[in-house]
Design goal:
Blueprint: E1 3-7, E2 11-12, E3 18-25, E4 35-41, E5 48-54, E6 59-61, E7 69-74, E8 79-84, E9 93-102, E10 106-111, E11 115-119
Parallel strand pairs: 2-11
Antiparallel strand pairs: 1-3, 3-8, 4-5, 4-9, 5-6, 7-8, 9-10, 9-11
Length: 121
Amino acid sequence: QVQLQESGPGLVKPSQTLSLTCTVSGGSITTGYYYWTWIRQPPGKGLEWVGAIHNDGSTYYSPSLKSHTSISRDTSKNQFSLQLTSVTPEDTAMYYCARGLYSGSYYYDYWGKGTLVTVSS
């Protein structure tokens, strides 16, 4: 059974860096054809794909967020992390980590519970 758990501060000040970590259990982030993914949902809006890291460490980012998004991993801890710099209140959202797979289109079979991050002074 694969489980994902987000962790990190729930409040970030504008212009600062949003940092979150996803801890994965029940499966290795370095094996399999999976994309370890960050997805967010602003209040009242739909889901937005932020980016992902593949099992070989390759990273992929949303074009709209690419300039200030970084995804990394710590394989010894089976964790992957999100850093979003220069945040604004528009970055306030529920942030999820998820496991993605591709078979013609992407499907996310396991999700974390999500963590709300508020960007505010």
